[in-house]
Amino acid sequence: MAADGSNQYPARVFLRDVTLRDGLQSEEILVSVADKTSLIEKILAAGIRELEVTSFVSPKRVPAMADAEELWKALPEIEGVRYSALVLSQKGLDRAIHAGVEEVGVFVSASEAHSRRNSGQGIEEALREALKMIRLARQAGMRVRAGVMNAFGCHLEAGPIPVEKVLGLAEALHREGPEEMVLADTSGIGNPRQVFESISGCRQSLNCCRLSLHLHNASGWAFANLLAALQAGVDTFDVTLGGLGGCPFLPGAAGNLSEEVVVRFLESLGIETGIHLPSLLLASGSLEELLGRPLPVRCSGGPP
To answer: Who wins on pLDDT, 204 or 225?
Structure first.
């Protein structure tokens, strides 16, 4: 049942494509800026209007994101399209501001072990820096998405992440005024009950802040978690072409929600997406050609 006691799903769901960032960040094959922009054009042709296209991180640690500034300058300018980038440090935010980025994602991890591996900082230190970055980004006129990574558990730690810990981090981030809060199942080991309880808690404490989910699929439960989120009233999800992606600093955090399968799934529930599946499949085919291999999740255009 939904958080309001009904069985209604959202009438429309918004999908944010994170193929260019999350999908490519762990790939050994480096895709050129020209090929990235061509892929973006194909994704836009399918009807996607929100894309996270890069991250401003160390080129040595994540070579696939070394072209962040160059890519941002080359992005197709189309009215109504929102591009964003991930920043994990003050230095990354400074680069994003200088590049003219209009929207950034600022995240902290609910896992101490992952926080240290991902950012070199413990949770408390990372949270202080994240709060400072949100303030500075808003002062620079940027839209901000704030989020909690490993909100439902972590491969590097034993046992689940307590919901209270996740809500505490989300509330601290929310006090700085981001436009959106993201709960990320970075390890991909969350379960539907956790997802529903965390979303319900966030809805009670974060007022009307837009809430979205970023779901990985290591456990194979990503679609069950998607359904639980829909039942709790969430209408915004991160997706990648063919379920590509994972965290380079978290072994086993494989795969995202497959954009193509999500579109078919939502349409089977009567939920509007505004996405043209045949065009999306063309984009997937182009990505397979760039990588020289099939994507993790393949999807036909036929009926479910």
So the answer is: 225
Specify the CATH class of 14-291 in words.
alpha beta
CA distance to 28, 35, 41, 203, 211, per residue, from 245 (Å): 12, 18, 20, 28, 22
pLDDT beyond 70 at 254: no
Number of H helices, E strands in the chain: 10, 8
Q: Give pLDDT, residue 250.
A: 53
Q: Which residue in 202, 208, 209, 247 is the catalytic one?
A: 247
Q: List, for residues 257-276, the tens digit of each pLDDT value.
A: 999 999 999 999 999 999 99
Q: What is the pTM of this model?
A: 0.93
Contact predicate 23/256, CB 8 Å: yes
Sign of the alpha-carbon torsion through 153, 267, 14, 278: positive
| Structure confidence at residue 303 (pLDDT) | 44
User: By C-alpha distance, which of 50, 73, 90, 78 is closest to 259?
Assistant: 50
Rg from Cα positions in the chain: 18
**Catalytic annotation present for 247:** yes
Domain ranges in the chain? 14-291
Gap between the Cα atoms of 298 and 304, Å rounded: 13
Angle formed at CA 176 by CA 18 and CA 231, multiple of 5 degrees: 50
pLDDT at 304 over 60: no
Long-range contacts: 203-209, Cβ < 8 Å, 24+? 203/3, 203/232, 203/233, 205/167, 205/170, 205/171, 205/174, 206/170, 206/171, 206/174, 206/181, 209/174, 209/178, 209/179, 209/180, 209/181
**What is the Cα–Cα distance from 212 to 232, expressed in whole angstroms?**
11
